[in-house]
Amino acid sequence: MHSLKVRYVCVGMLNTLFGFGAYTVLMVLIPRSYYILALTLATIISGLQSYATQRIFVWKSTSNARIEFVKFITVLVGHFVLNMFILFFCVEFFEMDPLRSQYVIGSILIVFTYFVHRHWTFKVKI
Question: Rounded to two decimals, what is the model's pTM?
């Protein structure tokens, strides 16, 4: 189980950097007021990359890829919706910077998605 957590952290750091990088690039290219659009596009781009790396390198799954993909997308959509509402709240009500806010929100939500993926998406038996 220890090696699973190490793999998740290592791959997760790479996926997080990739996702934050995509969001950062989009925030540079898209006007600040379209931060939700940037989040949406970054989530789609990084979500596909994250599924592949998690399935192959973290969970080393041999289960039905279609079923796991649907589960992964379900978790990703839930993650995105929660992320979007928190980001919107931070930016619109607290006038926080969308880029900095996303770094904090994304970092916190990663912890929760680990448990959902472990117990449901890729269902690892301990």
Answer: 0.89
